[in-house]
Amino acid sequence: MSIKFGTDGWRAVISDDFTFDNVKKLAQAMADYINNDQGPASKARDKRIAIGYDTRFLSEKYAELMACVLAANGVKTILAEKATPTPSVSFAIKDRGLMGGVMITASHNPARYNGIKYKAYYGGSAAPEITKKFEELLGKGEIKYSPLGELKAAGTITIEDIVPKHLAFIKRYVNLKLLKTAPVKILVDSMYGTGNGYISELLKGGKCKVDTIHNEYNPGFGGINPEPILPNLKELAEKTKAGKYDLGIATDGDADRLGIALPNGRLLTGHKVMTLLLLHLLEDRKMKGGVVQTLCGTFLIDKICKKYGLRMYETPVGFKYICDLMLKEDILIGGEETGGVAFKNSIPERDGILSGLLIVEMMAMRKKKILDILKSIDKEYGTYEYRRLDLKYPDDKKAKLMELLKENPLKEVLDKKVIAVNTKDGYKFICEDYSWLMLRLSGTEPILRVYAEAPSEKKALKILEFGKELAYNV
118 and 37 in contact (C-beta within 8 Å)? Predict the structure, then answer.
């Protein structure tokens, strides 16, 4: 059985491993788990599961199939009536007190992939012990299935639009009245995903002028990966500059991640996006709490936490680890380097739509352009430039590379002495000037990720090249 859960769900190539048969097998394993679960989910207010899906090829059919297997096993389901953001599924779980939820999506992966995320009763990524149970139950039970029409008639499947309640929450969370008075010109790129025209819809009727691109249905994503980074956002960056927009906003394939294009045609890294959001909550909204970022996070966040006396947590890569801390501790903000951020008093889940509006709210509250805000951050905290490189890496070299780094950890990276090594998730080499290099095998894709941060873009790119040569010379 080739179904394995990675950092956030199971992903595979459509018609290769991601087949109707495998989706049915996983759905049956989920049904067996849910029907025998005696944990907190069994005490949920609403004994139903929400199922959403993205804009990928056949996602709607996979979602229907998942619902029909679950419902045939006595698990009542709410099936989204249209392509839906992942945070909308998570919000429905938390808002209604559901037992959990399923999202058919491969998130930011290429169009040939699809995938399945499971969201637990708390509205966030399922803990590893839950997904491990799914894997253990695969193929153990006979698959039960009934047609959609029959299950709808019986009331075990209901079809709903679950997005409006999520949008209503966002309207309450942000200062929508202030946003609508701000004369800001924004270009939104939905990347052909589930973000659709929601930011435009939320801001209509005010002084904000919002234009959109790539919000039509295109399961091939226009030939790009729906991940809000370069080179995928080249068009957004160019049009933001050419059209003299104050801000460019992008959401990924399932709208849980955010990308930001600047008026000068440059893109912000996910680190800078999280930095802006953290400072906005701290300085403008006067909120408090701990901060969570992954091992490939930025020292910029460390500096801000030290200044404000905030506790900073560091987790392995994977939002499920951030989610776990947000459930246990008083966390103000938790985020990844890929632009996925969650907030206090919201769901323990990334939300690209809410994140984008909070950036606009920051500009409105400070009455400043985004470039001026960024300049003030650099002036106070220093410059930190982050870059990432994804390498197709031979399977026969993976174990050799990890063993080499374990037995002979780097003493220097370029001309800087290594002062610390973090091995919680891959190998991160921290240098005396707080530049760093990290090498990590992806949990969901057949690639090696090389990460770097340095005081300048030039230095960060040199560190990436150093890491690339190190890997290929194994």
Answer: no
The answer on pLDDT for 443 being more than 70 is: no
Q: At what angle do helices 20-36 and 59-72 cross, to 10 degrees?
A: 40
Q: What is the mean pLDDT of residues 98-117?
A: 96
CA distance 54 to 217: 10
Q: What is the average per-residue pLDDT within 11-32?
A: 96
Residue-range domain boundaries for the chain: 10-163, 174-381, 387-472
pTM of the model: 0.94
Taking residues 425-447, what's their average pLDDT?
A: 88
Q: Domain 10-163 class?
A: alpha beta
Per-residue pLDDT at 445: 67
Cα separation, 443 vs 425, whole angstroms: 10
Residue 462 zone, left/alpha/beta (φ > 0; ψ -120 to 50; rest): alpha
Share of the chain above pLDDT 90, in %: 92
For the domain spanning 387-472, the CATH number is 3.30.310.50
Q: Where are the beta strands (DSSP E) in 303-425?
A: 312-315, 331-335, 341-343, 385-392, 412-413, 416-422
Tell me, which fold does domain 174-381 have in CATH? Alpha-D-Glucose-1,6-Bisphosphate; Chain A, domain 3 (3.40.120)
Same fold, 10-163 and 387-472: no
d(CA 340, CA 283): 21
Helix (H) or strand (E) holding 115: strand 113-119
Closest CA to 104 of 9, 6, 7: 9
Q: What is the mean pLDDT of residues 211-230?
A: 94
Scan for tokens 């959401």, then name that residue. Answer: 251
Q: What is the pLDDT of residues 340-380, one digit of tens each?
A: 999 999 999 999 999 999 999 999 999 999 999 999 999 99
Concatenate the DSSP letters of all residues of 276-320 into one string.
HHHHIIIIIS----EEEEETT--HHHHHHHHHHT--EEEE-SSHH
d(CA 103, CA 464): 34
Among residues 46, 36, 38, which one has the least CA distance to residue 78? 46
For 73, 78, 148, the CA distances from 70, given in Å and listed in that order, are: 5, 11, 11
Show the CA angle centred on residue 233, arms to residues 227 and 234, nearest 5°.
150
* Pick from 165, 164, 211: nearest CA to 190: 211
